[in-house]
Input
Amino acid sequence: MNRKELNPNASPQAAYGARLRSLREASGWTQDDLAQRLEYSSVHISAVETGRKPPTLRFSRGADRAFGIEGTADAFERECREIKQGGLLEGFPEYVGHEGRAAEIRLYEIGIIPGLLQTPEYARVLADSAVRRGAIAPEQADERVAFLTERQAALMRPRPPMMLVVMDESCIRRRVGGHKVMSAQLDRLAQFAELPNTVLQIAPFDIGERRPFNLPMNLLTLSDLSVIAYAESQMRGHLERDTAAVLPLLTAYHQLQAEALPQAASVAMINEVRKGTP
Output
């Protein structure tokens, strides 16, 4: 039987796999034995051990139960979360940590509804689409939706943050998930606009060259009134804390709000799009 030599120093994922194999063998279990305990195939166990498949939270929790290390410093769930954060774009894990405690959140999005305003069904369609493209595994899609739900829940607190959201018109015009999903999502936006701590605006297509941002932009005002900014491209994310760099972005956001439709007109456009959704 061929046995692949593992290099735990190759990557965090390789270290996870090597430790999984080590604990399995120390317990006297074959891959089939562990597969039965975790309710996975032995092929899947082999793929995780050799680093060919990334570990998921579900898999890691099962391994923790099997080895009796739940809730310990050596838990696989803890290691899996560290790997996942390492796979996120640079700056995003820190941004999310601040997001849950921010006094004000300013968002600008292009093409899709901002994550914090997505319905579970809309978020699921996007995640499942990534699975069909081969970009992520099905279990990673589940974790992506669950992670978004956790972010949304963090904002449901006794003193919720003020949320100012500007969406490019493309966000509401782009059909995602068919009539039922899109109609419910547009309803969710209208409900969001009615909350006492929110402002929702649409930046129409005819804003043209007056649109100050070409990429999505997130700005957080923290409890000490400092402002941080987060922006990302397809491949990179960047968290900016330097006041000299953030203040021009804040100014540009105010300019964007001035060019965007007022909230009442924005909600009217959302409702018109909803009525016209075939």
About this structure: DSSP finds twelve helices and six strands in the chain. The beta strands are 104-109, 162-168, 198-203, 217-221, 227-232, 237-240.
